[in-house]
Amino acid sequence: MDRCWLWLAALVCLTDAPAGDPVAVTYEPSRFFRAQILPILEHRCYECHSEAEGQDDGGLVLDSRSGWEKGGDHGPAVVPKDLGKSPLVRAILSHDPGSLMPPDDPLPAIEIALLQTWVLLGAPDPRP
Ligand code: HEC
Fold it and tell me: Whose C-alpha lies nearest to ligand 1, atom 28?
């Protein structure tokens, strides 16, 4: 799929123009996280990375902000605003079957674009 369209789709998810005012755009970090990012983590990652479910593969839990801040065996999973230094981003893009996340089940391109957008926005996460 064309990358420009993916970024556009991700940006459309961020925007919310009130009726009658097509120019005004509001972006609420915690709303973006809860609406766009949390469902991806819940459905694609918690199975193996959730403290609540007792799963911390690679030493990593993703069901709290402190979980990805502390990170796994290789340190913090996300470096806010830095795609290249964020192991989470490298893992979802990996061509190495041993590193790809979720294993054997690559994310759809739109979910990859949303997670990248989240990291670029500074990884807002209202959870403790
Ligand atoms: C089926 C289980 C499973 C699922 C689902 C899964 N992971 Fe993993 N993950 C693992 C395992 C196992 C490791 C450890 C791999 C290793 O050490 O070689 C790991 C390691 C990682 C690491 C590296 C942690 C470190 O510091 O070494 C990251 C980042 C990661 N996963 C992110 C994710 C993300 C993001 C998702 C969801 C999009 C996800 N994983 C879904 C099993 C899973």
Answer: 88
